[in-house]
Design brief:
Rossmann fold, 7 strands
Length: 219
């Protein structure tokens, strides 16, 4: 991907990018995202957290992309939120930084990623956040005491959906948020057993990449 000429500094990419997307973000959240980004770059060579090494691309492809969730989820919702396949924290940890009212749970099978997520959360003083180090198939087979208002996944293969017994962990009236790269077809956005409640299709700033975010509820 060719980088646009005269790309601003990372702080401006985040602040101006959020403004372009119409997402209200505080200065303290921008500062915390910058700390997070530096920690990500430092630990990436050890934990293999992301294939993207360029800081400005990380700011757009991971941070701004994660924040598009707020196009279908209101800020300050106080939702109990589960991010399945949290990876290096996208979108779960990023949206927790911007909206600390969320009660966040991050689920990932990789113990090194969980160590990294805990490190970032501690560094930023984030609370009301839970880390679950399990295969998501095993998680849904286990005894689950918590239920969630919102469940999201950003990069989960469609073939994995058969393992997602989401109704078991979703509160009444709860939602599932799916994130898509590009402009998905109607067939790609079909989610058996669910209906579309709200959606957003737009472009990521600076690189003009199409993105789609859809919030679903049970039929």
């Amino acid at each position: 991907m060719t980088q646009p000429k005269c790309l601003p500094n990372i702080s401006d990419i985040l602040s101006d990018g959020c403004e372009s997307l119409g997402i209200g973000v505080s200065d303290s959240s921008i500062s915390n995202m910058l700390i997070y980004l530096e920690l990500l770059r430092y630990w990436n060579s050890r934990f293999n957290l992301t294939s993207i090494a360029d800081a400005k691309k990380i700011a757009v492809f991971h941070f701004l992309d994660s924040l598009t969730i707020f196009k279908v989820l209101p800020l300050n919702s106080k939702a109990h939120f589960l991010d399945i396949g949290a990876g290096a924290g996208f979108p779960g940890l990023v949206i927790k930084i911007v909206d600390d009212s969320l009660f966040m749970a991050l689920l990932d099978r990789n113990p090194k990623r969980i160590v990294f997520l805990k490190l970032v959360a501690k560094e930023l003083g984030l609370t009301t956040i839970k880390f679950i180090n399990l295969q998501f198939q095993d998680y849904f087979k286990s005894h689950i005491s918590n239920k969630f208002d919102v469940v999201s996944f950003r990069a989960l293969p469609k073939k994995s959906f058969k393992y997602l017994n989401i109704p078991r962990i979703l509160n009444s009236g709860g939602s599932v948020i799916r994130m898509y790269s590009g402009q998905p077809s109607v067939e790609e956005t079909e989610f058996v057993g669910y209906h579309r409640v709200e959606s957003w299709t737009g472009k990521l700033p600076y690189f003009n990449l199409s993105r789609c975010v859809i919030r679903y509820q049970l039929d």
